[in-house]
């Protein structure tokens, strides 16, 4: 919480207990008590240890889940700062940065007026634009500004920083570099990164503005078009006057332009400058889909040449995604064709990408071109300053655009508050120009560095090449020689990324330290696995696969449009077929089996052996191969009716919540039965009678290569299991349709407490 008086931390008695009070609260608490009022103070429940987090040296930690106790519903800011500081600030723009600044200034007793052209612009094209990532550095700044607001943001957001995150190859889905954003946060006593709906975040901030400033503080439908600086003839003081689009004028001591990348305040302040088109258009949407490894992985960036794809958990079975493609700006798609174009661009990539696209309704896919602006070195002139995107619009690849705006707001509020306090509350005596220049100087280096990192991240993500020859020789690419840039780039990132993340997430900690209490929260701990497994997952890709709560399928997929044309399921009246007819890009025509502990037989369609997986090819033997889950060597006993056995085994294990995680010596296996007809895995023929371990993404062919039926090993989260999948014939299935609504993510907490599911982030 911001405060104009800085004193060491104090100790207070609350409800018969001794608690530590943050330094910023000591003076307000004393003033409030002198007025006979009972203010908010953090109540720290006693705790013997904090096993989830190492206490950083020099930082005082409060018990996790520290609560705010209020004997009076008014906050410290309302009780103490009602006398005000005598300075009025106009904020142009009610985006995230503008509203955070308004909250911070109002709590310091400033008079604030926020003008916004259109509060619904956040939705974009009249639709919901999706969540925003609020990383640890921004959450810490929010806590320093207003613990109540920060607590609500933490409560409403979905935690992604408690899991593994990182970069993957777009084609194969294999990990390139993993990020640990959890330990850089908790080592400095910071909250762990969340994702929250933009609309929800804006509503939280807007309510706080009205709580502290009154219902008229935010004026919607008011577009600030220009400003002038002049001396007020009545008071003799200098002031800045803004003019709205409707001709009305308003005066203040300070004007802050928080009106975004197309800022009119910026244009007048530094002149006309052209926004930089990044070279990429961006498709975005939210899918009703649960990735196989959602319990372990929070977000991923899939890399490619001239295109890349970002996916992030937003809670309760929904995933937000962004697909970037290099092309000229200003492009449009015919109505109803965005998903089709996305599948043209990304359809050959791994399932984690393709399934997210297919699981998103066509009407929920949005498109926009990505612009940024080069860094500038003039954020302020006279009594006018820029904040957020109006000063430093950056590409979204680091998720730091909104976070930098929140940090800006904190710093500007601190500087103005300190300046007024230094003049004993005489706002007219404040050197406003000097204060704004100090704000600029304190922010410009950090913001410019992160701006540059975001640009470099975009460049790296879109110029990534997996194999030598990609883009100029298919023959060379087919040799599968790792691209030198990929090898060198990975080495550089492995060496530098930990320190980069520590600086990005924790580099502003010392600035906010005087106004917040460092702490570790048990609620921020990983919820699906013990924290001690972080190093294992960071260093071992196979451990993530083995520990995912997922079914393994051996499945052939083909274009759902073929299914619609052939009217495959018309005779059965399948609801899935009807849905597919409405949107063929949301469904797949599939034939396959769930692999389980009992061995499943693979054979030719119509064979007397009654195979669980029937391949429609005369080159396939009646008893051609077996697939199973378990140890290497001979498969467990199997029967000709193993389809039912495999399904029953999978269903039973899922119901127990222990389904599909593998022991260190277990795996999924395929054994050729020595028919001499041949079995191919990833284009290579197995020796007759050989057994091979399968991995997600493997392509399996029986009887001949190439085959018209290629079966793929696929992981699928247990909540997406479908009883309509058959190994005998193709059925049309909706991608992402949840079948098992009773699934509960296994709880890893040692106390055995109940699992709190991720909060759904929707409009």
From TrEMBL:
Broadest EC class assigned to this enzyme: oxidoreductase
Q: Which UniProt keywords apply?
A: Abscisic acid biosynthesis, Chloroplast, FAD, Flavoprotein, Membrane, Oxidoreductase, Plastid, Transit peptide, Transmembrane, Transmembrane helix
Single GO cellular component term? chloroplast
**What's the Enzyme Commission number for this chain?**
1.14.15.21
* Pathway given in the UniProt record: Hormone biosynthesis; Plant hormone biosynthesis; abscisate biosynthesis
Region Disordered: start-end pairs: 743-763
- Where do the FHA domain residues begin and end? 600-686
Q: Where in the cell is it found?
A: Plastid, Chloroplast
TM region(s), chain numbering: 89-106
Check the record and name the InterPro entries matching this protein.
FAD-bd (IPR002938), FAD/NAD-bd_sf (IPR036188), FHA_dom (IPR000253), SMAD_FHA_dom_sf (IPR008984), Zeaxanthin_epoxidase (IPR017079)
Which prosthetic group or cofactor does it need?
FAD
Any one GO MF annotation of this record: FAD binding
| GO process terms (BP) | abscisic acid biosynthetic process
- What protein does this entry describe? Zeaxanthin epoxidase, chloroplastic
The organism of origin for this protein? Chlamydomonas reinhardtii (Chlamydomonas smithii)
